[in-house]
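Pseudouridine synthase
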Amino acid sequence: MRINKYLAFKKISTRRGADELIKDKKVFINGKLAVLGSKVSVTDKVEIGGAKQKEYLYYAYNKPIGIETNSPREDLFPLGRLDKNSHGLLILTNDGRITDTLLNPKYFHEKEYIVRTSNKLRSSFKKKMEAGVNIEGYLTKKCKVKILTDFAFRVILTEGKKHQIRRMCSALFQEVADLKRERIMNIKLGTLKPNTLRIIKDEELVAFLESLGLTK
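Tokens:
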């Protein structure tokens, strides 16, 4: 395994960050200075000398309607997306370690949305939505739906296909008027105002990272 992949696998840094450590002559394999492209095996001893611990940052952001998914801060990037006409919770971070674990479809992480429809919900909507919907040849995983009014429902998904909720609703002859994400795992939007940030910290952060198999 290449040394940069090894350091990323061990959650010591990202691959790019590992390359920087190697260039700065801070990575040693069996006591010898590593170079870009060095390979390691399970029996090798890898040491990091003088590496400064990166300060990882995590924020909840309320994305407004009408803008593309982005970050209001250059040092942070969004985990996942919300389409231009949707709004609500995004998690912003500089921690590349969690991107795959959070977004890879082989993992199951709850995301909760409030959806309003332009037309009245059909009597069979909840049952069909929860069972899984065929969207262009793909059968969505089972989800949880709670009907709030004749024109609104709450849904909890464990996957995130592109425009999934809108496509599921369309397949069930319901037109989405408003889509708002309120929760990602244990991180909740709460009363956060549109286009504002709040830091994720303390017990909330510990629970979030532990569920991803990480520590701060």
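The longest strand covers residues 176-184.
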